[in-house]
């Protein structure tokens, strides 16, 4: 097969490939969301919200499990792909275009979730705080927010490149994620993703560069403290073991925070 040229493009413009990349996490994350709702919500959670839902791998999974889902994103290709998949599986979810730093929903959700560092796309403190405030305003009192992100270990980055391959039917997608630069003062990481997708005789190669905001445990804690309508319940690590919360620290890279909307803010 002749080698295709490398496109400089956003991988979110190729949702049929993006959707495959994180599929191995979907079951475990959905199990954790269900378990966290049971453990932390003072009511039976039915209505779930996913900000920046992308191609909606978790929306499809949780709608299949009987939950009522709402999700939004800025990526039109991602949202179109999600609508097609919902129709194909005869599922329903409320899907719309919005910015996660400033949004509003009609009926409050019982729980919301945002995983795999998506929150770190908000590069400024103001937009990160705006996001958490909008989440609090979208949750029913007692409702929870499950937020998964890598915290920066104090000693620097342990891994600066990661590579993995996933398959679905005829399609194979390989991704290499590289940390190009980390500016500790501005709290910005420059990341480059190289994606190669093969399906039959078709091949696509692309490079996607983007930035993420960095957080130490202390910086994240400070941000949380600035949003009094949310309280921290517990923190988990990449194992997503609901029986094993841990104390947040700078050693644990991927952290899953369970936050709860307070009933009253003093
Ligand atoms: C890593 S993907 C996560 C997608 C999905 N939540 C998942 O778990 O597979 C990040 C998503 O964030 C979206 N995004 C980035 N900035 C956004 C913003 N300010 N508002 C809404 N969506 C945003 C991108 O379009 C992309 O779909």
Cα-atom radius of gyration: 18 Å
Strand content: 35-45%
Bound molecules: S-adenosylmethionine
CATH superfamily of the largest domain: Vaccinia Virus protein VP39
Mean pLDDT: 94
Indicate the percent of residues in helices: 25-40%
Number of folding domains? 2
Helix and strand content put the structural class at: alpha/beta
Strand order of the largest sheet: 4-3-2-5-6-12-11
CATH architecture group name of the largest domain: 3-Layer(aba) Sandwich
CATH topology of the largest domain: Rossmann fold
Number of H- or I-type helical stretches: 6
For the sheet with most strands, the description reads: 7 strands, mixed
> What is the CA–CA distance across the termini?
65 Å
Shape from CA axes? globular
Order of helices and strands: EHHEHEHEEHEEEEEHEE
List the uncertain runs.
none
Written account of the structure:
This protein is α/β, with parallel strands linked by helices and 266 residues long. It folds into 2 domains: 6-10 and 154-213, Single Sheet (N-terminal domain of TfIIb); 15-152 and 214-261, 3-Layer(aba) Sandwich (Rossmann fold), CATH 3.40.50. The chain is 26% helix and 36% strand. The strands form 2 sheets. Strands 4-3-2-5-6-12-11 form a 7-stranded mixed sheet, with helices on both faces. Helix 3 (57-64) links the parallel strand 2 (47-51) and strand 3 (68-73). Helix 2 packs across helix 3 (57-64). The longest helix has 18 residues, at 23-40. The model has no long low-confidence stretch (mean pLDDT 94). S-adenosylmethionine (SAM) binds next to helix 3.
């Amino acid at each position: 097969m002749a080698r295709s040229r490398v496109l400089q493009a956003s991988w979110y413009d190729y949702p049929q490939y993006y959707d495959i990349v994180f599929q191995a996490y979907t079951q475990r994350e959905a199990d954790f969301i269900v378990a966290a709702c049971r453990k932390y919500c003072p009511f039976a959670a039915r209505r779930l919200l996913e900000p920046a839902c992308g191609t909606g791998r978790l929306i499809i999974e949780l709608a299949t499990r009987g939950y009522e889902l709402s999700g939004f994103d800025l990526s039109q290709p991602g949202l179109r792909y999600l609508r097609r998949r919902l129709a194909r599986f005869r599922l329903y979810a409320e899907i719309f275009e919005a910015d996660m730093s400033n949004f509003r929903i009609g009926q409050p959700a019982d729980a919301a979730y945002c995983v795999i560092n998506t929150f770190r796309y908000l590069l400024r403190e103001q937009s990160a705080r705006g996001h958490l405030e909008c989440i609090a305003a979208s949750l029913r009192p007692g409702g929870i927010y499950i937020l998964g992100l890598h915290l920066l270990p104090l000693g620097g980055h342990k891994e600066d490149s990661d590579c993995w391959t996933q398959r679905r039917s005829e399609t194979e997608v390989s991704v290499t994620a590289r940390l190009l630069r980390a500016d500790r003062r501005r709290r910005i990481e420059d990341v480059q993703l190289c994606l190669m997708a093969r399906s039959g005789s078709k091949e696509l190669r692309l490079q996607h560069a983007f930035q993420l905001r960095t957080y130490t445990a202390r910086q994240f804690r400070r941000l949380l403290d600035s949003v009094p309508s949310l309280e921290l319940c517990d923190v988990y690590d990449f194992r997503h073991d609901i029986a094993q919360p841990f104390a947040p620290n700078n050693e644990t890279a991927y952290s899953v925070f369970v936050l709860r909307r307070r009933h009253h803010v003093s």
